[in-house]
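Class, study these two lines:
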Amino acid sequence: MTAESPSVPRLIAVPRLARWRPTLDLAQLRPVLLPLATAASFLLAWQIAVVALHIPEVVLPSPIEIAVALWQVMPALLINALPTTLDTLVAFVVATLLGVGCAIVLTYSPLLRDILYPNLIAFQLVPKVALAPLFVVWLGIGSSSHIAFAAFVSFFPIVISAAVGFTSADASAMRLCRSLTATEWQCFTMVRFPYALPAIFSGMKIAMTMATIGVIIAEFISSKAGLGFYILNAGSRMETADVFAALFMLCAVGVALFGGVVLAGKAIRRRYR
């Protein structure tokens, strides 16, 4: 036997752990960065124009003056934002329930569809703002008239969108359900309603903005609280910065409510895949 050569330590290549480096995908941030950059540019141009042209605060306050006023009157704005938000939510829920229910009736009753649907389209063209004082006469001063008018304004986008969604269900899927002896309720829950979800939520997005506008218009006409009431009072006192602060709060409330509808739509559509 030959003598073994002395062992020589071999170098073992140990793989290096890859250093984790966060990757920043600008394409994913684009929907956020572009609106923020546009808003910042607009506010900067606004501030420069007000300072350079020496525009009085009572005519057009600068963004800095509006920010100061917003900080000062924030407690009052929050108090007045509560009834506006609650009235908007109640009006939106009422309009959604009535609109979807009416769309179901129009879908399953061709006679009522032929009678009512053209009238709904025509009535959608009527300037509903002119009807706001009638709701005050009928329901008085308070949340009831605000909710009724806002629900009346936001009802039409939902019923029209939902009716289109229910009637545009896949005909082959409906025939398959009926061939498998499914009941009409099963056909509705498994085919018509899932297919109509995109159209329904498109109408709900419009209805949410219309409900907010309807509540503010009703508060302009008659109210004891709310952001519309605050805007009128601040305008009567020539406090323009406070008016813009209330408008900012109104935009924040509207964006939050609209975002809630968008998130609910994504969750429900994910549920139905």
In short: Confidence is low (pLDDT under 50) at residues 1-5. Residues 184-221 form the longest helix (38 residues). The chain is about 75% helix and 0% strand.
